[in-house]
Amino acid sequence: MAVQPSLPILPAVPPTDPAFHIFLDGQGLAPLRRRPTSTLQINVGKLCNQACHHCHVDAGPKRTEVMSSSVADRVLLLLRATPSIQTVDITGGAPELNPNFRRLVVQSYRLDKHLIDRCNLTVLSEPGLEDLPEFLAEHEVEITASLPCYTPANVDRQRGRGVFEKSITALHRLNALGYGRAGSRLQLNLVYNPLGPSLPPPQAALEADYKRQLREHFNIEFHRLFTITNMPIKRFADDLRRLGKTQEYQHLLVEHFNPATLDQLMCRDLVSVGYDGRLFDCDFNQMLEIPLGVPGAEAPRTIWDVDDFSGLRDQPIATAAHCFGCTAGSGSSCGGALSR
Q1: What's the whole-model pTM score?
Q2: ω before 28 within 30° of 0 (cis)?
Q3: 35-325 CATH choice from 3.30.420.10, 3.10.180.10, 3.20.20.70, 3.30.70.260
Q4: Structure confidence by residue, pLDDT tens digits, 72-89
């Protein structure tokens, strides 16, 4: 194993909340286990040009947690060593603000990996990033962009004043490069999440509505819409507490548990790497600092504990109460709804 450099690796947290695991057992369903890793999700940190109310990362302009070059180097080495990985999914914060972002893109592209950038759109107007759309297009990066509604008032209420207008400007720039156009290899997807403590509506119907509204009012095209359930963690959890709706929302998620979603959960095929090199079963677990695997089972904790990601296969997956968010209704993942 590689020698871990001196980095701000935080200590392991106490054992996970067993609520989801106990629920599965009570339903006669097997505990979740990992399949071969096909997606490497890299969270490069919490620095962002926005501070959205629903953000499960708790990201913002004042956050200082940023992936270092040494961590990025190790991640790229492990990517080369794990042939089963087909997709590199880069997220944040606003991942484009990280100084290692372009290097991660270029090196992954050279390895012929499918690339995804979790983009908030407004970052494309940040000083010094004027050429970013062209860079993403050159490397055929799939853009998955947050746009929680097609009306200015709702977007600005959730994401901040002026965000909708900047988002529309960014989408026009991307469309001009070929992103979102029918038949184009430049994939442009939008992400919807509810404005409050409710489940997303059916994805296909909402996608049709988005496409009609954005085309008619703004002459914007995109490929797919992903509906993502708000996870009861971080800022959204704080909002639930202020509204006195924490238990009500958790009950909503449990009440709508859908066993058909279990086989498609992203944690089965994805490994999440934190800005500091720690490993997690998903980005939500990462934000709650729930380490990879379950208490009592041997599992690597950082990228310096493994020589590749192939050894993660068949390992048990760490779960907690927020996992009901991924399995409620049509399900929820980084790729949208899990069942139709």
Answers
A1: 0.91
A2: no
A3: 3.20.20.70
A4: 999 999 999 999 999 999
